[in-house]
Write a structure and sequence with these properties.
Layout (H helix, E strand, L loop, with lengths): L8 H12 L4 H8 L3 H14 L15 H12 L4 H8 L5 H13 L34 H34 L1
Helix pairs in contact: 1-2, 1-3, 2-3, 4-6
Length: about 180
């Protein structure tokens, strides 16, 4: 869950300590002299994941078209990006914003996985397949349950990585 390339590990830890003391991202950024937008990104992840925002994820997570479309439709229907990010185990509410923006620009095709072997599309923008957001019911129940279990596994792996890092830091203090 990397908070962005502009902050060092030490700066991220200092910011999280300040967040835990009750400071907002702007005040915390000013206190340690980092850019407020970078601090805001970390703050959003902190609100979503707590101290786990300090743990880098080993790989970039990919989400299915069905999951992305459900998230986009629910956001357009009024659910907050933060609530959706929390429910679906996303690394940041910015992902929801990015998917909604892409869907508004290019329709359903923008949410489908891209393959590196496919050339960039040079055709005009396609029409959106559904003008009004509707709650998706096309996903089989097994897929929803499978996605939920995958998110739970990912959360537990991040928690495990955080605890290992904490143990290692404590052991360094004793050595």
């Amino acid at each position: 869950m990397d908070s962005g390339g502009s902050l060092s590990e030490e700066q991220r830890e200092q910011l999280v300590d300040l967040f835990e003391q009750g400071l907002g991202y702007f005040a915390a950024a000013n206190r340690i002299g980092v850019s407020p937008p970078a601090a805001r990104t970390l703050y959003q992840r902190y609100k979503l994941h707590g101290r786990l925002c300090l743990v880098k994820k080993p790989t970039r997570q990919e989400y299915s078209f069905e999951i992305k479309k459900e998230i986009v439709q629910r956001n357009l229907a009024g659910e907050s990006r933060m609530d959706l990010a929390r429910e679906f185990g996303l690394s940041s509410p910015q992902l929801v914003w990015r998917w909604v923006s892409k869907w508004n620009r290019d329709g359903d095709d923008a949410l489908k996985p891209k393959h590196n072997s496919e050339p960039e599309r040079s055709t005009p923008k396609p029409e959106r397949s559904s003008p009004k957001p509707e709650r998706s019911t096309s996903m089989p129940a097994g897929s929803a349950e499978e996605a939920k279990l995958r998110r739970e596994i990912e959360r537990l792996q991040a928690e495990n990585a955080y605890l290992k890092k904490l143990r290692d830091l404590r052991n360094q203090g004793r050595a």
